[in-house]
Amino acid sequence: MATIKEIAIKSKVSPATVSRVLNNDDSLSVAEDTRQRILKVAESLNYKTMRVRKKQTESQKSSYKFGIFLCQSLTEELNDPYFLSIRQGVENQCRDLDIETTEIYRIQSFQLSQINEELDGLIVIGKIDIEIINKLKQKIKHFVYVDCSPDEDQFDSVVIDFQKSTNLALDHLIKLGYEKVGYIGGVQEEHRQQKEKIVFDDERYKIFNEKMKKLGKYAEGHIFIGKFTMSEGYRLMKESIAKGNLPNAYFMASDPMAVGALRALQEENIKVPEDVAIVSFDDVEMAKFASCPLSTVHVPTELMGRTSVKLLVDRIQGRYIPLKVTVPTNFVVRESCGAEK
């Protein structure tokens, strides 16, 4: 597309005059033949003003309708801000693009008949069983998965590198000299009507076990698994304390669990980080405001949600090759590990 400078050269006037004429500046005093000459040159060069281009862009805005499929119950989502933040990222990006997202489905009450077949696409947040995926494919053509990549040869997905992220936290503890490192984490469960629950292994747990065994530091008695909630973090830390012989550091699989664990330690007059160090995962808002601010892996959850919307729009508009986007994480050092910046 032609520039204002090119039009000015051909019209034999200044770029400022061209700009004011093309943008209908009423305060400009210019001869009519000069105005017409500028307009004629601009037309011959197929120049469009910013105002015209903005109107064209707005007229081309999508009127898509996306659904959100949540693999967490409402209670689980409220107890774990990780997933809530992802959903908010999806909704914020849809709002920015004028995309409707009124259709929200949850795995616990899912019925295939509920799915609106007029949806242009579906964003699935969390781990999901292949049986559900196959049912959804009967109704919806375009999918994006967030925090899960069930089939990267078919579906777009937005994930983090759990191997790298978990090692960020563990390597930090090891470099600080902690020899005995415990683990407190959870599992994601899928509850469906008239079906047994399905339990998904957590990547952080597997990576922790592999690394500790490789280093010769694995201790099964220091492993505690429950659910990803604050109350479970409290309960599991109480259980660890009751066993005695506490490790000198813990890796917590989520910030809410870590906050619960801090409370349990406080009640037993066990000081963090003087007696026990803690590193965590997620970096949700509560992490920096915990009774002892948490050193934790920062996951850009809101960005994950926003990215999923962009991928879905791109796929609908013609991209046929599935993409797997891995968003970066970083380790945030605060007081809980004993190495505050």
Q: Would you summarize the structure shown here?
A:
The chain has 341 residues and is of the alpha/beta class. It contains twelve helices and 14 strands.
Radius of gyration: 27 Å
Shape: elongated
Structural class call reads alpha/beta
Going by CATH, the homologous superfamily of the largest domain would be: Response regulator
CATH topology of the largest domain: Rossmann fold
Helix content: 40-55%
Largest sheet: 6 strands, parallel
GO molecular function, one term: DNA-binding transcription factor activity
Domain HTH lacI-type: 2-55
Pfam families: LacI, Peripla_BP_3
Organism: Gracilibacillus orientalis
Secondary-structure map:
Layout: H1 4-11, H2 15-22, H3 32-44, H4 50-59, E1 65-70, H5 74-79, H6 81-96, E2 100-106, E3 121-125, H7 130-137, E4 143-146, E5 156-160, H8 162-175, E6 181-186, E7 188-190, E8 198-200, H9 203-215, E9 223-226, H10 230-243, E10 249-252, H11 255-267, E11 277-282, E12 295-298, H12 301-316, E13 324-327, E14 330-332
Parallel strand pairs: 1-2, 1-3, 3-4, 4-5, 5-13, 6-9, 6-10, 10-11, 11-12
Antiparallel strand pairs: 7-8, 12-14
Helix pairs in contact: 1-2, 1-3, 6-12, 8-9, 10-11
Protein name: Transcriptional regulator, LacI family
Domain HTH lacI-type: 2-55
Keywords: DNA-binding, Transcription, Transcription regulation
